[in-house]
Amino acid sequence: MSDSNSTPRKSDYLRPVIAGVLLISLCLAFLFLLNTYSTLNVSFLLNNSFLVPAILLQVLASLLFIFAWKALLSSQAKTHFSFAQCTAHIGITLLGKYLPGKIWGLLGRTYLLNIKGLTKSEAASLLLADQFITFLTGIAIGVVALAAFFSVEIAIFLAAATVVTIAIVGYYYASIMSYLLSYLGTWLKKISKSFELHDVNIKRHSFYLSASLYLLHWLCTATVVILLFHPLLSDNLWLNSTLIMAAIPLAMLSGFLALWAPGGIGVREAVIVAVLMLSLPLELSMTIAVTYRIICILIDLSLGAYTLIYYSITEPDILKSKQ
């Protein structure tokens, strides 16, 4: 290869930076429009005494998300993936979910694993485990939190059952996946055959570590919203907090399943509003839902821009279209 191909030019990473800044600026502008079109006063958020802790907690939640993926990658010893590479994997997935069909981000992550020496089967097994753990932990947090709204005793029982369930599922994960891939319909069989998913090999310690990190990620993410709206929730902080703790993971997972909605737009907000209206008025529920959408877009674009910059600098050929 020539030197021009191996040495990145300024334009290779300047354009992603500019695009990322412009998109983030548009999102910020949209956030300020909430002053006019919703009950939210932006100055309320900016003057919130919990704003800085909320921002720091959101950074921690994003780091936990990345470390959960890195924990799964430790299941294979063929290639070591740095934290920077794992962050880029997450970034490409978050960008891809805004394309119709939702799977493009996952396919992009598969490609990035393939070029580092992992087989199609190994990459698919890792992604399958990642999505399985995401849904398992998200549903667990959502159900336990929703139960806490009605009964603390039931919530405690479900929390204990969740710990036991995750322990059992992690121990028998390979057998469970093999069974599902063998018996759950022709569509899943075709997917399994296409990606050569003959052996789902995820180390147990990697599964447990990833699941633990995902549980913390969901809790931190929901707590960010609670901190931002704390003054408006303080009349009944416990009940309102349990609803937010339930709404965030359930909405995220529902949005992902809505293949027709890029980024889960509309579906995620509908779930949040439906859950929050068990205790909160419609206007406040909608404001929380829209604000959380803006937060998600900012995170997605930030990590997406990082991904483009990272590969523009380290492996520019990946981002170049074939002539």
From TrEMBL:
Pfam families hit by this protein: LPG_synthase_TM (PF03706)
Principal location: membrane
Cell compartments where the protein resides: Cell membrane
Coiled coil: none
Keyword field: Cell membrane, Membrane, Transmembrane, Transmembrane helix
Bilayer topology: Multi-pass membrane protein
Cross-referenced InterPro entries: L-PG_synthase/AglD (IPR022791)
TM region(s), chain numbering: 12-34, 54-73, 126-150, 156-186, 207-232, 238-260, 267-284, 290-313
GO CC, alphabetical: plasma membrane
Origin superkingdom: Bacteria
Protein name: Lysylphosphatidylglycerol synthetase family protein
Source species: SAR86 cluster bacterium
